[in-house]
TrEMBL record:
InterPro entries assigned: Polyketide_cyclase/dehydratase, START-like_dom_sf
Signal peptide (from-to): none
Protein name: Polyketide cyclase
Length: 142
């Protein structure tokens, strides 16, 4: 999934990887660094998605760190497992493209895959909304 941002790759990457600020753009999600500096391979993150007490914890380890263009994570939780990567690339002075992709191992076998058929479109809409919010936040606030 890809969106355009009215901000440089450097600016978008700075907002994207300011983990506590995820609540400002990622729909119903808070994030924090749980180990390391949050800015290097091996750092660990935890993100809670949902409305407390309902929701789930997504734990991650940063596996690739190439500012201001790439950050990748390995999802290590009980529910969410797999990989995720953000690519940010300058397209013109003061503009960039943000791409987000995930490759997740769905829980609960065939039941999980069947549930994803139903939940997938909603999840995709929420993720697209989050990316648009990231692009807007990057272009409008320090």
């Amino acid at each position: 999934m890809t969106v355009e941002a009215g901000a440089s790759a450097e600016r978008v990457f700075a907002v994207l990887t300011d983990w506590p600020r995820h609540r400002e753009w990622m729909v119903l999600t808070t994030a924090e660094v749980t180990e390391g500096d949050g800015r290097s391979v091996g750092s660990r993150l935890a993100a809670f998605s949902g409305l407390r007490p309902a929701g789930f914890l997504d734990t991650m380890t940063i596996t690739r760190w190439e500012p201001p263009h790439v950050v990748a994570v390995e999802h290590t939780g009980r529910l969410i497992r797999g990989t995720g990567v953000f690519h940010v690339r300058d397209t013109a002075p003061g503009t960039s493209t943000i791409s987000w992709s995930e490759s997740l191992d769905l829980p609960f076998g065939p039941i999980g895959r069947a549930g994803w058929i139903l939940a997938g479109p909603l999840s995709e809409a929420l993720l697209r909304t989050s990316l648009r919010r990231l692009a807007h936040l990057s272009a409008t606030r320090p």
